[in-house]
Amino acid sequence: MSVYDFKAKDISGEEISLSKYEGKVLLIVNTASKCGFTPQYKELEDIYKKLGNEKFEILGFPCNQFANQEPGGSGDIKNFCEINYGVTFPLFEKIDVKGENAHPLFKYLASQAGGILGKEIKWNFTKFLIDKKGDVVDRFAPVTKPSKIKDKIVKLMEE
């Protein structure tokens, strides 16, 4: 099993098979618009502009499970990200990332790479680094700035 075995609805509601990203390094992030870590959108977009999207993609998955920090609908989220941070990387519909209603992708990601709370997602902007084969190679805490991950992304892209 790999991340390519999953599907998710993009921010416009279209179901996307993650196999579409096969052969690319992925950084999968659960995001929120009203979080102390929200400014990470800028670093994520900067990395995406420098490295994406031929061999690398960032996939953003909004989530409202942590202190109600993503209350808006898909249109609100998309507009917020574009207007405030110029986000051009793919965004998906708002999902749950923990608990019994967690999206299957995030259940899989968390099972493959534990964090400080074991297998559960701790907060917004938890990041999962995926290699070109679709395997989870690392997990980064919300406090880890995207710029600190860039070298690892580049290394995976060169493999």
TrEMBL record:
Keyword hit for DNA-binding: no
Phylogenetic classification of the source organism: Bacteria, Bacillati, Bacillota, Clostridia, Eubacteriales
Protein name: Glutathione peroxidase
Pfam families: GSHPx
Keywords, in A-Z order: Oxidoreductase, Peroxidase
Family to which the UniProt record says this protein belongs: Belongs to the glutathione peroxidase family.
Residues annotated as domain Thioredoxin: 1-159
Record-linked InterPro entries: Glutathione_peroxidase (IPR000889), GPX_AS (IPR029759), GPX_CS (IPR029760), Thioredoxin-like_sf (IPR036249), Thioredoxin_domain (IPR013766)
Example GO molecular function: peroxidase activity
